[in-house]
Amino acid sequence: MGKKNDNTLVKNASFLMVAALISKIIGMLYKSPLSTTLGNNSYAMFNYAQNVYFILLMISSFSIPQAVSKIMAEKIAFRRYRDAQKVFHCALIYVVIVGGIVALFCFFGGSILVPDSMSGARLALRMLAPTIFMSGILGVFRGYFQAYRNMMPTSISQIVEQIFVATFALLMSSVMLKHFSGEKEAVVQSWGAAGATMGTGAGVLAALVFMVLVYRLNQRVIRKKIKYDEVSVDEDSADVMKNIILIVMPIVLSAFIYNVNGFINSYMYSGILGARGQDHDMIQSMYAEYGYYMTLINIPLTLASTAPTSMIPEVSAQYARRDMASARDKIDRATWISMFISIPCTVGLAVLSGPITRLLFPRTTGVAGELMILGVITIILNGNSNISNGVLQGIGKPNIPMRNAAIALVADVIVMAVLLLLTDLGVYTIVISMIVYAVVMCLLNEISMKKYMRYQNPWKMAYINPLLASVPMAVVAGGVYYGLYALLHSNIICLGIAVILAAIVYFMVYLIVSKPTDEDFAMMPGGAYLKKIYRKLPVG
Predict the structure, then answer these.
(1) How far is it, in rounded angstroms, from Cα 51 to Cα 68?
(2) 24: pLDDT confidence band, cut at 50, 70 and 90?
(3) Which residue has better confidence, 98 or 328?
């Protein structure tokens, strides 16, 4: 039975990881032609509206899938299917009320949420109001199937959502730009951004329709379980609603603190520079460059965080049994997986920042590449803090990473304000503040991990070995790209060859310096193939 449960957990985690990765890749690929279609200023408006939307979504429905799946799973475990269904219905009522309020604030609160220097984003933000309302309902359906340990509907719906987002963002932005082409430039840019945000709404609607259809297909089975349920206690709806709120609010608060720094930094950047008299077009153009940077940086962050996240329940279980040695070993493994991906991505993006940003975002002025060189260190820092956040939450200390995030946020805001007011660094201040936030978060979490887990980071295994392998990788990547480019002048060909050769060098050198065990190979991407190569090397 235990082995079956372990296999189910691995399978479910794999579904979610693959879906998240596919969604991120689609998201990156469509933003390249979207930025070309919109232009820098309109793309900056779109990006700003999306950032505000993300914060509002966090308040309205971010934690709903977790809350619904947790409460329902507790009922389902005791075959209380009628009680579980009541949780589902009460959760729908909750998201309709809360989502409706937040959606109205999104529609009418543009002047509060968006500074005057980015006022063109207010129309795009209004277009996202119905999406906030629908997202809550979608979250309830996803949580419903997760409670029954069926991750497939959620995984498929995420991919469906992203496909519709990409398709309709490109389509509607083009339609709006063409329709308003005779208006003033500011109006055209505003409607172009609004058209792009319509893609977000189309994606959520498509995913919701898919989840409702899956629910209807399963309705006969659900009704049968409810019909023969003889153990439900028929809890009062008010008690169920109270339970939902008690679970949702702490998750909302912690997630809000973890992620609000991006919105605050963006608001301060636009507001303070606007107040200092900087040209609004320049503010928007530089913010678009920041948007390009964030789109690229999110890919390795997603890659590095998915596998460790799936291991956190194991750490929690070992800690509950007071098996600290096994718990620390699981953390070591999660850290190693994260850094095995994060460190070469950090080094590679730093070396090839210019060519990569020019390939994906042809309208870039080059600033996005410079932001990449400055900010890639956050890939490693965030990879580290993601693990420590998950571990501290898993061992029953959720308030500690939340407190640490609040302290890091204060440091972030202070640095942001000082640099914006006293220097001319402009958009670079956002990235510098992000680095400060990530450093403070890592240091504070490190102290907490030592206190509660007596944990020491596996520096050699997780950090030094990938770094040693990344140095020759960087030499090959830079040498091959710039050497070939001097001859071919083709960015995509030179970049493709450089990345492939650099990846081969990284894996080969890593095998030599780390001397991995069979267990290590089992956890590596393409581990079976790498193991065969390693056996043929002199060191193997």
Answers:
(1) 25
(2) confident
(3) 98
Q: What gap in Å lies between CA 414 and CA 440, rounded to an integer? A: 13
- Rounded to the nearest 10 degrees, the angle between the axes of helix 353-360 and helix 491-514 is 130
CB under 8 Å to 194, separation ≥6 — which residues?
123, 124, 126, 127, 176
Write down the H helix ranges in 2-151. 2-38, 40-60, 64-77, 81-108, 110-113, 121-127, 129-147
The HSE-up count of residue 416 (CA atoms within 13 Å, CB side) is 26
Q: Which residues contact 486 (CB under 8 A, 6 or more apart)?
A: none
Cα 61 to the center of its chain, rounded Å: 16
Q: Which residues of 328-346 are buried (b: 16+ CB within 10 A; e: fewer)?
A: bebbbbbbbbbbbbbbbbb
8 A C-beta contact, residue 294 and residue 48: no
Q: What is the pLDDT of residue 187?
A: 94
Span 309-324, pLDDT tens digits: 555 556 666 776 777 8
- Neighbour count for residue 152 (Cβ, 10 Å): 14
Neighbours of 26 (CB within 10 A): 18
What confidence tier does 539 reach under pLDDT thresholds 50, 70, 90?
A: low
pLDDT over threshold 70, residue 15 = no
Residue keyed to tokens 């689609």:
26
d(C-alpha 32, C-alpha 196), whole Å: 13
Say how far apart CA 221 and CA 219 lie, in whole Å: 5
Q: In Å, how far are 20, 146, 355, 518 from 155, measured between CA atoms?
A: 8, 10, 33, 31
End-to-end Cα distance, the chain: 38
In the chain, what percentage of residues exceed pLDDT 70? 89
Is residue 501 within 8 Å of 476, Cβ to Cβ? yes
In order of 205, 285, 401, the CA distances from 70 in angstroms are 25, 44, 21
Token reading at 363: 């309208």
Q: Which residues contact 371 (CB under 8 A, 6 or more apart)?
A: 289, 290, 293, 427, 428, 431
Q: Which residues contact 435 (CB under 8 A, 6 or more apart)?
A: 374, 375, 377, 378, 381
Which of 28-42, 376-390, 521-535 has the lowest average pLDDT?
Answer: 521-535
Compute how many other C-beta atoms are within 10 angstroms of the C-beta atom of residue 255: 18
For the cut 50, the answer to whether the pLDDT of residue 298 exceeds it is yes
Residue 224, phi then psi, degrees to nearest 5? -65, -45
CB 484 within 8 A of CB 498: yes
308 or 283: which carries more pLDDT confidence? 283
Is a pLDDT exceeding 80 seen at residue 383?
yes
